[in-house]
Structure formats: structure tokens, C-alpha cells
Specification:
The complex is a heterodimer of chains A (about 180) and B (about 200). Chain A is mainly α. Helix content of chain A is about 85%, strand content about 0%. In chain A, helix 4 packs across helix 6 (about 140-175). Chain A is elongated. The chains are: A mainly alpha (about 180), B mainly alpha (about 200).
């Protein structure tokens, strides 16, 4: 026997027209399957209205507040780890690109030699730079020296302060996505 | 939405933890109830409800105040619970439930069928036999009293899909309840001293 639309009507009896209601009653007299469905629906409705919503154990909000600090810390640690990983990967990638391009343009021995030579020359280059700086600063007039040191230190401060602030904020609060 | 609630929302979006705690207090029961009905275990429901509020806390700045907060919050809870169930990669019916179906002796006794706790147990066991999406639709309709449109917005489906899922879920539960009743009656007859 076809149980449609009677099954649907059993689910929404309040929406039925009087004729539909009569038709449903007639069908129920002859159909045991729909009577069983009706009995199940009635029992389900009774169960749903009788059962109260499940409630959490007392102190749910306090537990959430207590876990908040811990979760925040974990999130910040995760962000710092991710940032370090990205930074490290970028450095690795840049190094690989430089090393790879050096390898492609010359032989491995030459590249290695160039690398060792560059590293070994660093102290000499620093010494040379120090000499040039000393030469210029001693030969410049006092007023220019003061102006130059003021300009350089201002730039250093201007760049350093936001960098430090960003670093501190990143460590303490993490990165917030807005 | 009450005036104090909209105030809490505004303050929570500005980063006020106390205001957010008030929202947690206000919505703990609907969120926990949804998680409990979807996951079927008090401890898992507690963890899921806590995770829901943490996710809401992280995303509160992105919350659009023109949308009902309950819909937004329960949407987070429902998606989290449905994902959890998918991750388990296990059938929604647990071994004990299979056993209950196989072994007729495990049908609840008539005494057990009486009282709210027992009814709760029965309904919870039968809910597990529905698929997670159908279960979510049913719980939102009857316990959270959401309209079909609200459920659709929450679970990202059309109102007609919600309606059809709701019908399917109710019919399946009705059939299961009837089968359980028959089983119980047969058990009573089998245990009768006359036999």
C-alpha cells in the first residue's frame, strides 16, 4: 500500500485541511503501517516535550575562563613557532638560491673558494670601513659631525622602536586576525 | 536579544573578557545540549562546548551583529561536532547499540522506560542512529526552537533541504521507537510466569 502523502500528513497534522484530515483517518483505519508510524510519532513528540535540554556540570563558565589563559598561551606559542618556521624556511630558500646560482655560474671548488674567501675577508672589510669612517669624521667640521650623528641615531631609533614594539606585541598578544 | 546581551556583544567585540564570560553563561545550555545530543557523551559534549566558545571568542570580532548570536554560535558548535564525528571515521552507531539490537535481552525493561532519565537515555540512543546532519537539524528544531530558515542558515542548506531532513529524521525515529516498543512488549510476554 502507498503510504504517501499520509506519512507526511502524520508529521504535520496541524497543517491539514478538514478533507485531508478525514482522508487520513480513513486511511489509518485500513493501514496498520501508518498506525504504527502514528504511534511512533506521538511517542516521539511526547519524549521531546518531556525531556529537558541537557545542561553542563556546574561551573562551566569558570572552567572556560580558566582555560582561556592557557589556550591563549598555546595559541601564541603556535604563532611564534609558525613565524620562526616561515623565517627559517625563507632564509634557507634564499641561501639555496644564492648557492645554487653560484654553482650554476662556476665550478663547485671555485664557489667554495669564493665562499671561504668572502667569509675570511669580513674582518678586513670591517677594518677598512672603520678606517674610512674614522678618516671622514676626523676631517669633517664639528657641526657636521654632530648633525651626522644626530641624523643616523634618529633613523636608528625610528626603525628600532617600532621593531621592538612589534616584537613585544607579537610575543605577548600573538597575531590577531581582524 | 536583550539590551544587556547586545551590550555584552559590543564589549566582547572590543576585547572585554568579562562580557564574553556573560555570553558563555547565557548560552552554555543550548550549546552544551546541542553538543550532547550530537555526540552522545557528557565528557565529549563538555569538551566540544568549551571548544565552541573558544572558537567564538577568537572570531567574535568578525561576528555580524545583524545576525542572531544564537544562530552564529550554534553554527560553530554544530560544524565542530559534525567534523568530530567525521574524524572518528566510525559508524554513528556504537558497538553497544549493535549489541542491543542483536541481543533481545538488552531491551530496556518497562521500569527503565519510565521517567525522564530513562526516556532521555532511549532518545539519546535512538538519535545516534541518525546521520549527524539529520540529528543536528532535529536538535536545532526541537531543543533550540530554530525555524527551518534559521537551521538552513546555520547548517548552510536550503530550507527545503532542512524540511526534508527533518521529515526523514522524525519518520526514522518514529519507526525505531515503535520497534523498540514492540520489542519491549514481546520481552514482557516472554518473561511472563505463565510461559
Amino acid at each position: 500500500m502507498n503510504h504517501q502523502p499520509f506519512e507526511l500528513w502524520l508529521l504535520e497534522p496541524d497543517d491539514l485541511e478538514p478533507e485531508q484530515r478525514q482522508e487520513l483517518e480513513d486511511h489509518l483505519k485500513n493501514c496498520s503501517v501508518c498506525r504504527q508510524t502514528q504511534s511512533g510519532i506521538n511517542r516521539l513528540n511526547a519524549m521531546i516535550t518531556q525531556i529537558e535540554p541537557a545542561t553542563p556540570a556546574p561551573g562551566f563558565t569558570a572552567r572556560f575562563q580558566a582555560s582561556l589563559e592557557m589556550r591563549r598561551k598555546k595559541q601564541h606559542q603556535k604563532q611564534v613557532r609558525r613565524a620562526l618556521l616561515v623565517l627559517g624556511s625563507m632564509l634557507m630558500l634564499i641561501s639555496l638560491v644564492i648557492f645554487g646560482s653560484l654553482l650554476l655560474t662556476g665550478s663547485f671548488v671555485k664557489t667554495l673558494g669564493l665562499l671561504i674567501g668572502t667569509i675570511a675577508n669580513i674582518p678586513l672589510q670591517i677594518e677598512g670601513f672603520r678606517y674610512i669612517f674614522y678618516f671622514w669624521t676626523t676631517n669633517l667640521p664639528d657641526s657636521i659631525q654632530v648633525l651626522l650623528s644626530f641624523t643616523i641615531s634618529s633613523w636608528v631609533f625610528l626603525l628600532l622602536i617600532p621593531w621592538i614594539l612589534t616584537f613585544v606585541r607579537f610575543n605577548q598578544q600573538g597575531v590577531e586576525v581582524k | 536579544m536583550s539590551p544587556s546581551e547586545s551590550e555584552w556583544l559590543v564589549n566582547a567585540q572590543k576585547g572585554d573578557d568579562e562580557a564574553f564570560a556573560n555570553l558563555v553563561n547565557q548560552y552554555q545550555t543550548p550549546v552544551y545540549n546541542l553538543c550532547y545530543r550530537l555526540l552522545g557523551n557528557p565528557q565529549e559534549a563538555e569538551d566540544a562546548a568549551q571548544e565552541t566558545f573558544w572558537r567564538a571568542y577568537q572570531a567574535i570580532r568578525r561576528y555580524d551583529r545583524d545576525r542572531p548570536f544564537a544562530t552564529w554560535l550554534l553554527s560553530i558548535a554544530a560544524h565542530y561536532c559534525i567534523d568530530q564525528q567525521r574524524k572518528r571515521r566510525l559508524p554513528t552507531m556504537e558497538i553497544e547499540d549493535w549489541m542491543e539490537e542483536i541481543v533481545p535481552d538488552n531491551f530496556p525493561s518497562p521500569e527503565k522506560m519510565v521517567g525522564q532519565n530513562q526516556q532521555n537515555e532511549v532518545l539519546q540512543r535512538l538519535l545516534k542512529k541518525l546521520n549527524p546532519q539529520d540529528r543536528a537539524v532535529l536538535v536545532m528544531r526541537y531543543w533550540s526552537e530554530f525555524s527551518e530558515e534559521e537551521i538552513g542558515r546555520t547548517l548552510k542548506m536550503s530550507p527545503s533541504a532542512v524540511k526534508s531532513r527533518l521529515h526523514r529524521a522524525r519518520l526514522k525515529l518514529a519507526t525505531l521507537i515503535h520497534a523498540e516498543q514492540i520489542g519491549t512488549e514481546e520481552r514482557i510476554q516472554d518473561e511472563s510466569p505463565a510461559f
